Amino acid sequence: MSQWSQVQQLEIKFLEQVDQFYDDNFPMEIRHLLAQWIEGQDWEAASNNEAMATILLQNLLIQVDEQLDRVSQEKNLLLIHNLKRIRKLLQGKYHGNPMHIAVIISNCLREERRILAAASMPVQGPLEKSLQNSVVSERQRNVEHKVSAIKNSAQMTDQDVKYLEDLQEEFDFRYKTIQSLEQSDKNSALIKQEMLALQAMLNTLDYKRKEVLSKIGRVIHEIDMLMSNMLTEELLDWKRRQQIACIGGPLHGGLDQLQNCFTLLAESLFQVRRQLEKLDELLTRLTYDGDPIPVQRPQLLEKVNFLLYNLFRNSFVVERQPCMPTHPQRPMVLKTLIQFTVKLRLLIKLPELNYQIRVKATIDKNVSTVSNRRFVLCGTHVKAMNMDESANGSLSVEFRHLQPKEMKSSAGSKGNEGPHMVTEELHSISFETQVCLYGLTINLETSSLPVVMISNVSQLPNAWASIIWYNLSTNDPQNLSFFNNPPAASLSQLLEVLSWQFSSYVGRGLNSEQLNMLAEKLTGQVSYNDYQLSWAKFCKEHLPGKSFTFWVWLEAILDLIKKHILPLWIDGYVMGFVSKEKERILLKDKTPGTFLLRFSESNLGGITFTWVDQLENGDVTFHSVEPYNKGRLSALPFADILRDYKVIMADNVPENPLKYLYPDIPKDKAFGKHYSCQPNEVSKPSDGGGKGYVPSVFIPVSKILNDSTDPHSPSDLLPMSPSVYAVLREHLSPTVIETAV
Asked: Which N-terminal stretch is annotated as signal sequence (predicted)?
């Protein structure tokens, strides 16, 4: 079943998450129509290879054309229209930057895998539960409702101001008419009656002025209360969700809804500001004793301007945190002299601001004591915000060509740049701009979440550990001295984040049994409720009896899965995190030949398999092969190792001991689709090889002696083809075969 087919079978709450990351950058129609083709391409590799990305973009457009031909024959007018629009959009948007669409599609596929993994988990973790709190959802609805009500109130007040203006014009006309009469005429009874009418009209004007000012005051108060409470909480919640998403958590959404709220509030405030200006204009034409306008208007205008300043300042956000395109799953880790991207958005979307706001990027602008190292940003560090580059038309700017460069120290040397750069040192990328609108000048500043600077990719794992710990432990967006005294973290939340590392990076998260094994490895305890884990225990102290830390061990396993056993991991056939003791408990009552796959606890980036066997006297015995590392797995795919693995027992009869994957899945049923070729498909000796040589492949072979429960260290990758081995078994005795191997 394709990944897209699995996605379509998810519950609605998960489908809503999928819906959030498909937009005009990569329309869902294309994902649906080209599901199998899209999943068959290596988009991640293309995201770092422009030539490959160019070819994939061309092939994608060809696939769209083929779909267009098909639906044209079916005369599906709506789909024809949508596909033509999408094709034009894809070609126009990515023709000059094909790697960008490769990054987008790679991210979408990875996010689908994360959601599928989350859906397969029996329970949500504490962090994810907190992000999907029903109270938060209710507050979001309340904010939208209140913003809409405020907008309606401001528009209704516009009508009151217009009525007041018409009433004053009528009063002004009638008053000037009386003033133009001769003195003798003013004493007539008719004129005296008109004067009484004018006085009544002035009283009405006074009442209406007070009423309008009162309504304006209520609108301002409602905006103030909304901004001070619910809207501020919404923005802080979004920023927290962004933090969690950056370390592998659920994709954060809600920024478009926030933009709508901020924009409507800004429009309402500017509308109120115009109403106050109109009152000032009416004041210059008519005033009187006890006039409320000169008393109340200055205070109201000052409050409106204050709210506008705060609204604009809060609306300037980092929409996408700094990230190297070469490492999309490791945001906020930046390598010197390597380009990174970062995107900012102004949540107040007004057409008057399009291309009018220039944003400047700097690094460590206000930091003087946190670090001895200093950096500058090379590349285009000033750009204008616009509504044309974003698919949803938001007012944003994306920096794509920034590079951090370390400045030379005062002595003229290169500071600390090199393999020993401290990965716990945090830096800040700042952005500043100025908004000039309707007589207001507002200076805006914002900053990225703290970033870690590295000079060598070997420092990436520890740098990423720092990013995980920071964003798990604190809501503070700018605590650059955090690692001077890093706090302990809740182990239950940390385990949830570790599961996210697997779901986001290798497409399948960890189940409760796997997480329990990791918890026991970190704490030495079976129960870990309310356990607080120190930063040193996670990333700095070596595991007992080992020469490496827990995090280095785990990162090596992630790398192993990603590069060598990814399909097996995604299918759920790698138990992986299970201790030797638990392994034997699971296998002891199983059919001989039952095996499971687990990661080595003593070797970095190693995977082994253990199978259960039964001796003649009925006793159960277990055999574990020496762990396979990336070097050996580069020579032979792991699925082929499981298929072809042979053991030469004491009686010299070679056989494959692996029959059933735990608990009882026939081996070929589990791994058959991952075999590179079937043994009987390998060329026979008579077929010949290059330049007359017989073709050969590696066959993994181990020898078990009478006094051994484990295979000897396999010098086990012997250059022998399956067909040759079959011929040997047919024509040679076991003794001769043993001598040969």
From this structure: none
Torsion from C-alpha of 244, 250, 255, 261, nearest 10 degrees:
-100
Q: What is the pTM of this model?
A: 0.80
Task: Name the burial class of residue 458, with classes exposed (0-12), middle (13-18) and buried (19+) by CB atoms within 10 angstroms of its CB.
Answer: exposed
Q: What is the CATH number of the domain that holds 78?
A: 1.10.532.10
The CATH number for 343's domain is 2.60.40.630
Question: Which run of H or of E encompasses 13?
Answer: helix 12-20
Separation of alpha carbons 733 and 231, rounded Å: 81
Confidence band of 421 (pLDDT split at 50, 70, 90): very low
Q: What is the pLDDT of residues 578-637, one digit of tens each?
A: 888 888 999 988 999 999 999 999 889 999 999 998 887 878 899 888 899 988 888 888
- Which residues lie closer than 8 Å to 145 by C-beta, 6 or more apart? none
Q: For residue 448, give the nearest of 365, 359, 332 by alpha carbon.
A: 332
DSSP codes of every residue in 225-252: HHIIIIIHHHHHHHHHHHHHHHTT-SPP
Cross-sheet strand order for the sheet of 660-661: 620-624, 607-614, 594-599, 660-661, 665-666
In this predicted model, which residue has the larger pLDDT, 148 or 12? 148
Are 218 and 160 in contact by the 8 Å Cβ rule? The answer is no
Q: Are 499 and 515 in contact (CB under 8 A)?
A: yes
| 715: in domain | no
Phi, psi (5° rounding) for residue 366? -110, 20
β-partners of residue 623 are 611
pLDDT of 24 reads 75
Q: Report the residue count for the chain.
A: 741
Whole-angstrom Cα distance, residue 628 to residue 640?
13
- Per-residue confidence (pLDDT) for residue 100, from 0 to 100: 83
Predicted pLDDT of residue 121: 63
Average pLDDT in the 386-393 region?
Answer: 79
Which H or E run contains 362? strand 358-363
Higher pLDDT, 675 or 423: 675
Structure tokens at 33: 């129509």
| Host domain of residue 242 | 145-313
Q: For residue 525, is pLDDT > 60?
A: yes
Q: Are residues 436 and 341 in the same domain?
A: yes
| 692 pLDDT more than 90 | no
Residue 301 within a domain: yes
If DSSP codes are grouped into helix, strand and coil, which group holds residue 373?
A: coil
Strand-pair partners of 442 = 435
Distances (CA, A) of 531 to 125, 282, 487, 512, 522: 15, 68, 13, 16, 11
267 vs 115, more confident: 267
Of 120, 136, 161, the position where a domain reaches its end is 120
φ and ψ of 577, to 5 deg: -95, 90
